[in-house]
């Protein structure tokens, strides 16, 4: 930490200070609004009507609660869990992300006592016999597979599915749908979400397949009102919308409309440049609009943004001391954090970047400091909206589109509401704010429209995978599996379309595709010796079913053909990474850079699996190429090289490398479960997990 940080930073950023000075100001109409800014007085908790209605609904059936972020959805789950555990029952709380599961585990441990709460996320497995289990949806789905195989019912009396809108997630929605289909009707489900546009449609589907009513409880009022603002390039804050009454559509304020529809409106920054964040922060600080979350387009923009905040030096005093102390306290178990290249900005400027390219421990540090009110601003990509829980007084939009992993698309209502849900902290704010910043990628009329738009509907993402087919064949015949697929949300939507007598060739094709997709996988499993002709798993099929991972068949073939190095943990981890990596990699190496054993392993696996991979491809299944660089990275990491050394080999960002390690560990856990069939590989898979899950990968 540099003592002369302020001077060094200002000198460093002199070349970047190309902006004309903004003149802080507000439209006179905002004076009354800003007068309401402040911290509410503490009051005794009184349950809202929607919360009480939800508690009553759970006594009568399943329940889906849709309410804005911070409205108190989790309180409903807490009350039901308290009642069930008081009656000696058990409860399961499932969330989509490990970080959210970890947070909820800590929260529930404080509420119910640590001896009564367990966690299952893959990375963590603690107190698994507790009356309350918190975990990821994938773990819950896997437990349902196991209970069906054993002919037993799941050992719980209540299931909470938090962030239920993940049902519509393109990649992971299938897991949520499987849970809803497989879960025994005796176990009530409580679904919680801030953003589902067709909640009643989903509830009707659930009622039809579970034989018990699913009651929808909707709450549309935000616990902290949202006021939209616009910052003019001059530095003046304006109301974004014109005053409206009744149910009229929101319209742009006249002054904002004049700017938005002008021929050549002034910009806050030159094209393809970032705006003067330091000056914007000063304006927000002057009018008590901090802390703020700035949503930016990319990781690079988030990292660059904090370099423009050199004027935000924290003056000496208790806040500065508290921030420094908390940074050191939270870094004790992960000293790597103190070497982070952004630690200076964090400690001296109270600003931080937060995105998926960063290490888990760094992100956790930022989230904790923001939650504790020690930061002025976080510059984040839109993924932070769904992935963490640290609201701010103001959320700042610089773009009206979002990168979905493939392309930039305009924000939809669900994404927008997820992001604005972070504005306004219950118990800390009377009012929250949205600030629209004009720029090349900001469609101001679209933002105005999104403010009053209902959340988007979500649709079925059901699809068959080899892992699904293998696991269902443990306890079902092929005919029974087709019946299960008929219970899908997709099939329900198709049936409803037919009831309306609407010609829907697309829906019919979707239903036919689902059935054919299952049969194609079943036939391939028969052809390759995992399933018998009468639809039962062979011995190979039974152990392969335990590989609940993305590419179970290729890894299973690798074990059948004895291609993997089973006696060396580092080499085994490296070869498993081949089936985890989804990114293209540059595999150009000098021969001297490659260990001989590693090279031999790689080409033995690649050559040995080529016939099987070719057969998969010929039968119409996707086959990913195997890249050497990610595998070499994990080999070096498991062999004891430092994080900085393997970063150089990987050519990845910190967060991407951490994710590669964590996903490799997930795959190794499934191999560890094969101890009855491959005892040496299982033992060394366990050793490999210990080798690769070390600081700075693991978030404490």
Overview of this protein structure:
This protein folds into 3 domains: 207 residues, Rossmann fold (3-Layer(aba) Sandwich); 170 residues, P-loop containing nucleotide triphosphate hydrolases (Rossmann fold, 3-Layer(aba) Sandwich); 227 residues, Sec63 N-terminal domain-like fold. Helix content is 44%, strand content 10%. The protein contains 29 helices and 18 strands. It has an 8-stranded mixed sheet with strand order 1-11-10-18-15-12-14-13, sandwiched between helices. The chain has an 8-stranded mixed sheet with strand order 5-4-6-3-7-8-2-9, with helices on both faces. It is globular and about 80 Å long.
Strand content: 5-15%
Low-confidence stretches: 13-18
Classify the fold: give the CATH topology of the largest domain.
Sec63 N-terminal domain-like fold
Identify the strand order in the major beta sheet.
Answer: 1-11-10-18-15-12-14-13
For this entry, give a set of tags.
Rossmann fold; about 10% strand; 3 domains; Sec63 N-terminal domain-like fold; about 700 residues; eight-stranded mixed β-sheet
Task: Describe this structure in a few short sentences.
The protein has 29 helices and 18 strands. With 700 residues, the chain is of the alpha/beta class.
Q: What's the SSE blueprint?
A:
Elements: H1 5-12, E1 25-26, H2 31-34, H3 49-58, E2 62-66, H4 73-86, E3 91-95, H5 98-112, E4 117-120, E5 125-126, E6 132-136, H6 137-150, E7 159-161, H7 173-182, E8 189-193, H8 199-210, E9 214-218, E10 226-231, E11 236-239, H9 254-260, H10 277-286, E12 292-295, H11 299-305, H12 318-330, H13 343-349, E13 351-354, H14 360-371, E14 377-380, H15 384-387, E15 394-397, E16 401-403, E17 408-410, H16 413-420, E18 432-436, H17 444-451, H18 466-472, H19 478-485, H20 489-499, H21 505-527, H22 539-544, H23 552-560, H24 569-577, H25 596-618, H26 628-638, H27 643-650, H28 654-672, H29 679-692
Parallel strand pairs: 1-11, 2-8, 2-9, 3-6, 3-7, 4-6, 7-8, 10-18, 12-14, 12-15, 13-14, 15-18
Antiparallel strand pairs: 4-5, 10-11, 16-17
Helix pairs in contact: 3-4, 6-7, 20-21, 24-26, 24-29, 26-27, 28-29
